[in-house]
Amino acid sequence: MTQRFLLLALLAVAVLGLAQLAVHARSGGDTPGEALRQYNEMQDRVRANNARPAPVRRTKVRASPFSMPKPVAPAPAPTVPPSLFVHVIGDSLADQLAKGLTDVLDDRPDIAIIDDAKADTGLVRTDFYDWNKAVADLLAANAQIDAVVVLVGSNDRQTIRDGDTRLDPQSEEWEAAYAKRIDALLAPLKARGIKIFWVGLPPMRSDDLSAGMVRLNSLYRKQVAEAGGIYVDIWDGFVNGDGSYAASGTGLDGQPARLRKPDGVHFSDEGARIAAHFLEGDLRRVLGDAPPAPVIATAPVAEPTTDSPGEPLVPEKPEYGPVMPLDAYETTPGGALLGGAAAKPAGSADPSVAKVLQQGKSPPPREGRADDFRWPD
Question: Is residue 27 over pLDDT 80?
Fold first, then answer.
């Protein structure tokens, strides 16, 4: 039905067009061929115009007056050069402790952590590495040393050779000889007035090795106290509630974290920060507060003067204004109340205020006010 209707419409248009051409020809106008040519040109122009893309209207977008301003990058904070130098000596655990100290003291750029630790060292095998000599060389180099942190001993469960004598690990003779080596390490530091912090050994996964660390820690605690140093016990940070070795625990951010490496001896990164956290408080207390941040120089502001033509002198703002009693009434210079009749003496109470606050009587409602509940007459 629809197709038939379209065909009829097209046929009617064609008949109408031919009729118009015939009328035009009879009226003395163009020939039918010329009229048909003009008609075709008109149709070509119509199709060309329809083929052109519609023009795109471009509107200028104005910034909203309520739009947020672009954030301004803050000026870089002035750098504070280090003025306090903390040297960390000991074995591989001390090396990890130095990294942990750098993390927990990141807010103190004035404190420099110097990592002087050497892996696989201790106080027993002086033939492998002599810490007494290393400390003497460090002091002889006139390096700035404000504090020394010591963590050593995880490799010291070995036989001590004293000449031709061999001392079995952690026998009474061995412990006496080991205590002398602790004293020999601390003596030159104490003589130079350097602050000494000795960090105790953590528990180990091996029960036998942990028992050896407990005995070493007792020696460190005693000898360091006699030398006037500070002994820092970190044992409780690496055990479970029953006192056994803990490979995992709670990190400084309060989240569960791995505290020890799979070997059951060394710290993880978070474990190193936990160990450093035990020491951090004593370091901050002994070394003192951070120095004030340097003042950023700014362009000087010219003081207002009366010599500047056309610029009035701005009066200096007082620290505080006049003292006004809270129960006084503001009056004009003549003594009359502002907006009222005669002024009341300072200290006299408003009768309506006295009724409300002293007698508990509500003020009468005013017509049209929210507390006027009277029915209209």
Answer: no
